Each structure stands twice: as structure tokens, then as C-alpha cells.
């Protein structure tokens, strides 16, 4: 269960208590505020706080005294121009603070993004819950034979059942030992929590607060909502994409158009494309590209 009934009651109480403010708010984001969006089997993402909206990006770009808004079209055009030309600092004026519950092996990938502020649940101080990520059967796949960093065919039948059995049994046994080691009952060793946790597997859930500005968040989403990212982090990135689309719709659309859906071409690629448009026959051999780069180029132009 992503949140317990008690936690949900806390969230509901926050949402039932609107405050008046002079600050700019984003109607789309207000819908998300505090609510836990379920991700994976026990995880979630929820917005704890945010600052700014599309207008704040324009306000900063124009270094304005007031709203900084000219007209809706002007604002959208300005945001698209800023995104297209990598004028990134106006996007840093918007911030988001998320509460994320995620498996430890996903957290290890996530924490590589250094341009955020993080505070993680302390397993030195608190006892971790008995919650482990067990993939849904359709996400159990064999090692890819073409990509060392990816998955191949989905496992099925006995193979899938065996994997699930091992994952569940190992998680359960490790947690039983953890509980035994930290037990304060008479006759127990009463091992320190900071030591007992070392035996827990990487599919156990942790939680953190993660605060980041919009520019760096979009960079994170560009890498982690991408098809090359591991499924288990991608689903978090996808959930955050939906939030960002409601929070700053103009910025998110520009991001989709100029980052997510865009490609970057080398000089050789641009040259080959121009020659092709003139009707010249261009091959890998006369393109100046390596075989791998040529394959990537073909992937781009053939779609
Ligand atoms: C599909 C995929 C596979 C990956 N595989 C591996 C792997 O096999 N092994 C591995 O170790 N990692 C791997 N990574 C992690 C990757 O190399 C980056 O560490 C991670 O994506 C964070 O990116 P970043 O540094 O750009 O982000 P951030 O840390 O958020 O930084 C954002 C930007 O800020 C700047 N910046 C931040 N800190 C510094 C600094 N100290 N010095 C200079 N500039 C800085 C850089 O311009 C950087 O791009 C993988 C990532 C992806 C998406």
C-alpha cells in the first residue's frame, strides 16, 4: 500500500485547509498538492510544496516589477524561445519539493542527480517497513542480448514464477533477520539499527524529500523519462512529467518539443542530411560517421 490510512488522513487534512496567499499559484499544481500518486507496488510521489508558475519564468526573464506577463501568446512564445536557445536561468526560478517513496536500487540511480536538495528517512534512527519491490510479472525480463544495460524478452510461466518466488523468499528472510537483530525483547542481541540494516536487499523501500528547480528537474526528466532509462525509475519520472505538465503547461510543452522529442545532430549528420536533400547518395562510408553513429542517424531520419 503506498500510504496507510493514517497517512492518507494527514494528507486529507492538509488538503481540507486552504490558506490565502499573495503568492502566484498554479491551478493545475494546486490539484496535485500533497496527494500521493502511486508508483510501483508500494511507492509514490507527492508534491509537498512548489514555487512559481509559467508566468514566474517570464517575470524572471523580463526582470519585471509585477507579473511580468504581456499576454498568454507572448508568454508562451517567450518560454519556447528560452527553451530553444538554452536560456536556462529563468526556469531555475520555479521550484518543486517532492516526497518520494522508492526502492533503494532506484534511489541509487536518482541520487546521481546532484543538483537537488535531499533529506532521506533515517534507518539509523527509525525502523524500516517490511516493504519490498516485487516486479509485476510483465516486468520480469531476461537479460538483453543486444544491450548490456537493458532487458530482453519477458519471462513467463515457470521461469517467472521461480524468479518471483526467489525475490519474495529472500526479501522475507532478510527482513525476518533484520527484525530479529533489532528486537528489544528479553534475550535478543538488540543490534543497533544502523548496523542491522546492512543485510537488507536493495529492493526495500526508502523515502526522501527531494527539492529541485525546474531547470534541473527537466534535465532529470529528460534522462529518466527516456526509453533508455530503467523501467523502475522511468515510472517515477513519468508520474512527475504529468505533474509538471499541469504545473507549468507552457514550459512543459516547450520541453517536450525541444528536449524530449528533439535530437541533437553532429556536423557529419547535418552535412549528410543536406547532401541527401540535394539528391546525393550518401552512405556510411562517405558520411564520415562510424557504423554506430550512422545507425543512430538512420534511426533519427527514418523515425
Ligand atoms: C540511461 C542511463 C544510464 C546510466 N548508466 C550509468 C552507469 O553505468 N554508471 C554510472 O556511474 N552512471 C550512469 N548513469 C548516470 C549518469 O552518468 C549521470 O551521473 C546521471 O544521469 C546524472 O546526470 P547529471 O550529472 O547530468 O545530473 P546532475 O547531477 O543533476 O547535474 C546536472 C548538470 O549539472 C552540472 N554539474 C552538476 N554537478 C557538477 C560537477 N560536480 N561538475 C561539473 N558539472 C556539474 C552538469 O552539467 C550536469 O549535467 C546513467 C544515466 C542514465 C540516464
TrEMBL record:
Query: Which top-level group of life is the source organism from?
Result: Bacteria
Q: Which family does it belong to?
A: Belongs to the thymidylate synthase ThyX family.
Q: What does this protein do?
A: Catalyzes the reductive methylation of 2'-deoxyuridine-5'-monophosphate (dUMP) to 2'-deoxythymidine-5'-monophosphate (dTMP) while utilizing 5,10-methylenetetrahydrofolate (mTHF) as the methyl donor, and NADPH and FADH(2) as the reductant.
Q: What is this protein called?
A: Flavin-dependent thymidylate synthase
GO annotation, biological process: dTMP biosynthetic process; dTTP biosynthetic process; methylation
Q: Which UniProt keywords apply?
A: FAD, Flavoprotein, Methyltransferase, NADP, Nucleotide biosynthesis, Transferase
Q: Which species? A: Litorivita pollutaquae
According to the UniProt entry, what is the EC number of this protein? 2.1.1.148
Q: Which PANTHER family match?
A: FLAVIN-DEPENDENT THYMIDYLATE SYNTHASE
Binding residues for FAD, per the UniProt record?
Answer: 89, 112-114, 120, 213-215, 219
Q: Name a GO molecular-function annotation.
A: NADPH binding
Cofactor detail note: Binds 4 FAD per tetramer. Each FAD binding site is formed by three monomers.
One Pfam family, short name please? Thy1
| Residues annotated as the enzyme's active site | 224
Gene symbol of the encoding locus: thyX
Chain residue ranges for the region called Disordered? 1-27
Q: Which cofactor does it need?
A: FAD
Amino acid at each position: 500500500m503506498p500510504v496507510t490510512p493514517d497517512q492518507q488522513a494527514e494528507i486529507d487534512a492538509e488538503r481540507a485547509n486552504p490558506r490565502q496567499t499573495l503568492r502566484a499559484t498554479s491551478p493545475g499544481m494546486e490539484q496535485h498538492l500533497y496527494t500521493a500518486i502511486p508508483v510501483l507496488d508500494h511507492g509514490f510521489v507527492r508534491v509537498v510544496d512548489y514555487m512559481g508558475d509559467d508566468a514566474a519564468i517570464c517575470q524572471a526573464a523580463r526582470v519585471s516589477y509585477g507579473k511580468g506577463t504581456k499576454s498568454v501568446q507572448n508568454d508562451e512564445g517567450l518560454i519556447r524561445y528560452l527553451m530553444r536557445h538554452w536560456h536556462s536561468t529563468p526556469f531555475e526560478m520555479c521550484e518543486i519539493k517532492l516526497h518520494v517513496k522508492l526502492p533503494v536500487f532506484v534511489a541509487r540511480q536518482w541520487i546521481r542527480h546532484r543538483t537537488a536538495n535531499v533529506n532521506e528517512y533515517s534507518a539509523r534512527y527509525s525502523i524500516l517497513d517490511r516493504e519490498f519491490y516485487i516486479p509485476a510479472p510483465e516486468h520480469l525480463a531476461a537479460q538483453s542480448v543486444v544491450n548490456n544495460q537493458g532487458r530482453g524478452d519477458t519471462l513467463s510461466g515457470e521461469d517467472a514464477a521461480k524468479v518471483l518466488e526467489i525475490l519474495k523468499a529472500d526479501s522475507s528472510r532478510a527482513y525476518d533477520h533484520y527484525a530479529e537483530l533489532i528486537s528489544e525483547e528479553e534475550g535478543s542481541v538488540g543490534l543497533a539499527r544502523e548496523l542491522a540494516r546492512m543485510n537488507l536487499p536493495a529492493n526495500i523501500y526508502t523515502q526522501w524529500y527531494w527539492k529541485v528547480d525546474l531547470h534541473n528537474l527537466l534535465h532529470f526528466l529528460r534522462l529518466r523519462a527516456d526509453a533508455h532509462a530503467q523501467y523502475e525509475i522511468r515510472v517515477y519520472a513519468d508520474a512527475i512529467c504529468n505533474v509538471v505538465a499541469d504545473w507549468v503547461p507552457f514550459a512543459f510543452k516547450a520541453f517536450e518539443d525541444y528536449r524530449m522529442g528533439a535530437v541533437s545532430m553532429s556536423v557529419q549528420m547535418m552535412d549528410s542530411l543536406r547532401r541527401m536533400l540535394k539528391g546525393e547518395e550518401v552512405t556510411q562510408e562517405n558520411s564520415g560517421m562510424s557504423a554506430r553513429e550512422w545507425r543512430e542517424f538512420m534511426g533519427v531520419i527514418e523515425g
